[in-house]
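quick one if you have a minute, typing this from the bus. theres a chain ive been looking at and ive put its sequence and its fold in C-alpha cell form underneath. please have a look and point out which stretches look like helix strand or loop to you. anything you notice is useful, everything is just below.

***
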Amino acid sequence: MKRLGIYVAVPFCQTKCTYCNFHTGVVSAERFGPYVEAVCAEIRGYAAFYAAAGIAGKDVKEVKEVDTVYFGGGTPSLLETRDLGKVLDAIRKTFQTELREVTLEADPETVTAEKAAAWVAEGINRVSFGVESFVDKELAAAGRMHRKEDIYRAAPILRAAGIVNISFDLIAGLAWQTRSSWEESLGALAELGPEHVSVYLLEIDEGSRLGAEILQGGEKYSAGQVPAEDVMAEFYDVAREKLAAAGYRHYEISNWARPGKESRHNLKYWRREEYLGFGAGAHSFLGGWRWANAHDAAEYVEALSGRAEVKGAQAGETVPLFLMAPAFRGARLPAEQLDEITAEKALEEELFLGLRQLAGIDLERIEKQYGVTLAAKFDPLIEAGLVKREGSVVRLAEERLSVSNEVFVELMK
C-alpha cells in the first residue's frame, strides 16, 4: 500500500520578511477563497490531471492512503478555518485517509483561542510556529509582525485547545544577532518546551531583499549587522549543545525533537517516500517523477478554473507547461518542472537526503540496490573527518555538521 504525504501550499503572508526568498506575496484576503477553491479542484481531479500529463502512470492508481498533511507557506494560519476545512474535506473525500499528523504553519500573532479550537475540530494536531527569534530588535529588523510576547501568549492557547505537538523555528544569523541574544532565544525556547525545533542558517542570495542588499554591499534592512558565516556556524553549534541539554534529539541537520515527535511528514522527503503537493509552487514525487506547479498564485487559479490560455514561448523564454485535463472543462494543471528520476539521479538523492539524517545511510544497501561502489567517494571524506563509518552505516560527523555542504559538494562531483 502506498502511504503518501500531502503538502498544501498557501503562498500568502501579511508582510514580506526581509530574508524571505520564497514565492509568497501580500494580497487581499478576498483572493484567499478563489485560491482555496482551485486547490480543492486540483485535489479532486488529481488523477485526471496526471493522466493527461503522462505523469506517474500506474502509480496513481496504486495510491491507497494518505497519512500526513502539511499546510505550508507563506502563512497558512491566515486562512479562515472553514477554508482549511474545505481542503481537508477534499482530501478525505478523494483519498483513503488515516491522518496521523496534520501540520499547520502559523505565525504567533495570528493565533486566537477561537482559531485554535476550530483547527483542532478540523483535525489539525500539529502547529509549526515561525518564531525565528525571541529578541524584538531582531524580529523588527527582519520585518516580522510578531514580538516575543506574542509567542508566550500563543503557545499556551494552542495547548489549552488540545494541540500538544508544537514546533518552533529559529534562524541563526539574523541582523543584530549576537552570541548573547542567540542564547537568549534558545533559553526562551527551552522554557516554553515545544516538542520539535528547527534551526536554519540565514540564507544569503539574490532571492531576498536582505540577501541582495548584502551581496551589493548595501546597508538597507540592517544588512551591515548580519553576522559573518563563521559566526552563524558557531551559533548552530551552540544550538546543538543547548538543545541536547534540554532533552531534544538531533535527527536531521536542521531538526530536533522530543522522542517520538519527529516530523512524520518531513521524514518522507528525507527518506524519499512519495508525496503529492497541491497549490501554487507545490512539489510532488510519485512513481519516479518529480514535478512542481507554477509559483504564481494568480496564474495557478486561472489555470485550475479553466480561464488561462496556453501561450507560446518567445525566443529564449521559459514558460510553464500547461497540462490539459479534458474531464474538467478546460481546467489545466500549470507545471513548471517535470523531471523523470533516472537511476543516477535517484542515487544522488539517496546520498544527499540520506546524509541529512543523523542516523546516516546504509552504504551496503545503496551499493547493492544501485550496482555501484562508493568507497572511493567516501574514503577521502572519512580521512578528512567529515564523515564517519560504523559497519555499513555512514553518517556526517556531528562536530562537522555546520560545514555539511562541503560533504555534499564532494559527493556530487
About this structure: Confidence is low (pLDDT under 50) at residues 308-328.
